[in-house]
TrEMBL record:
It comes from the Bacteria. Keywords: Hydrolase. The lineage of its organism: Bacteria, Pseudomonadati, Pseudomonadota, Alphaproteobacteria, Sphingomonadales. It comes from Sphingobium chungbukense. PANTHER family: PROTEIN HEAT-STRESS-ASSOCIATED 32, PTHR48413. One of its GO terms (molecular function) is hydrolase activity. The keyword Transferase does not apply. This is Phosphohydrolase.
């Protein structure tokens, strides 16, 4: 088998191909080097759709523009983290932020309010502004503060308003820890929230932040391999794809016992 080819001897779940609207894999880059990105792209390009340069990393990394250009040539959309926009909002520098994002070559802007007390009207205005400037808008819903828990009604109300304001994607907060927003302090899914937002009219726009393997596996078992998942760490891209395709114990379907009464494989 030559380099770049994949085996075909298994019948696996069908996966959409890029550019896609389902089965999105959204990366959280916490400050990887340009060399590290170059090294991983040959293996991971086909699986990654959106690459977020998290929080303020693009502001301090002198090679960020080169990284963005490299990802663009690989067909991966780049996104500037929402925390940087929140800081710009606090400093009344949002137009400077948008000019920076455009100059750097970002395709997407994340608009969030999880780290500040940004009024809802200001967040909606930022979504509209980013949209008008030609960015693909990812609106993050949910707080980074574990003491601030939205009710199911509040989750639905906010994501609907953000979508109606022009957000292309609604990112469901989980943070890099996977212990806030959609999840409790132990990392378990808040099922009442999940079921409320998954039944929403904008469910096709949802990207669930799921940094932990158990969270990824749970959401794949719940909604299938084409569920949109975010805040995936760079080193977990290939691992996530095995979960999507049932090539890891966490997502293997039960195998019927063979005619000799062989053992069944079950979820861990």
């Amino acid at each position: 088998m030559s380099a770049g080819q994949l085996p075909t001897f298994l019948d696996l779940s069908a996966r959409s191909t890029k550019p896609r609207r389902t089965g999105i894999t959204h990366i959280l880059d916490k400050g990887s080097t340009l060399a590290a990105v170059e090294a991983m792209l040959p293996s991971a390009t086909r699986y990654v759709d959106i690459w977020k340069l998290g929080f303020g990393t693009s502001y301090v990394d002198p090679m960020a523009a080169a990284k963005i250009a490299l990802l663009k040539t690989a067909g991966i959309k780049t996104c500037v983290g929402g925390t940087l926009l929140e800081i710009a909002w606090l400093r009344e520098r949002t137009e400077g932020f948008f000019a920076f994002a455009a100059e750097m070559g970002f395709d997407c802007v994340e608009v969030s309010d999880g780290a500040t007390d940004m009024p809802r009207r200001d967040k909606l205005a930022l979504i509209e502004r980013a949209n008008a400037l030609g960015f693909e808008v990812l609106s993050e819903v949910g707080s980074k503060d574990p003491s601030k828990r939205l009710s199911s009604v509040e989750w639905v109300s906010q994501l609907e308003a953000d979508a109606q304001a022009g957000a292309h994607w609604i990112v469901i907060e989980g943070r890099e820890s996977g212990t806030v927003g959609l999840y409790d302090e132990t990392g378990k899914v808040r099922n009442e929230v999940l079921h409320a937002i998954a039944r929403n009219q904008f469910s096709d726009k949802l990207i669930f932040e799921a940094p932990q393997r158990a969270q990824q596996a749970f959401l794949i078992r719940e909604y299938g391999p084409e569920v949109n998942l975010g805040n995936i760490l760079i080193d977990d891209v290939i691992s996530l794809e095995t979960l999507r395709l049932g090539l890891r114990a966490d997502t293997m379907q039960l195998l019927a016992a063979d005619e000799r009464g062989g053992a069944r494989l079950v979820h861990a």
